[in-house]
Amino acid sequence: MRNRQLHTGGRSIGLLVLAIVVAGIVGSVLSYFLGGVFPAGPVRDFFFKSLDIGIPVFTISLGFAKFTFGLAFSITTFAVILVALGLYFWYKF
Q: Where does the chain cross the membrane (predicted)?
């Protein structure tokens, strides 16, 4: 059985995760601000309307303690484009 590894070109996986997170945050912030500048229409809806995905909030009660869990992502096309650019630059340089 072959040992399959991700070829990173000497760059760390932590830097990749950081690049994805930063690109996603910057893309979301830019989507928020630029979405207000563009006129209403299909282009604005495509690039700047967010899609909310995640796990709904649920609570586990043990009698003496309650735990609440949930996870949600708000994704825009613009943020996905910036994450793809971040990945491209991470692999290229």
A: 12-34, 71-91
Q: Which amino acid is at 28?
A: S
Expressed in angstroms, the distance from the first to the final Cα of the chain is: 31
Give me the domain span that covers residue 73.
13-92
- What pTM did the predictor assign? 0.71
Distance CA 45, CA 66 (A): 39
The answer as to whether 50 is a domain residue is: yes
Which residue carries 């912030």 as its tokens? Answer: 29
Dist CA 66 CA 20 (whole Å): 33
Looking at the structure of the chain, the number of domains it has is: 1
Q: pLDDT of the chain along its 93 residues, tens only?
A: 566 666 666 678 888 888 899 999 999 999 989 888 888 899 888 888 899 999 999 999 999 999 999 999 899 998 999 999 988 888 887
How far is CA 21 from each of CA 28, 80, 83, 87, rounded to the nearest angstrom? 11, 11, 8, 11
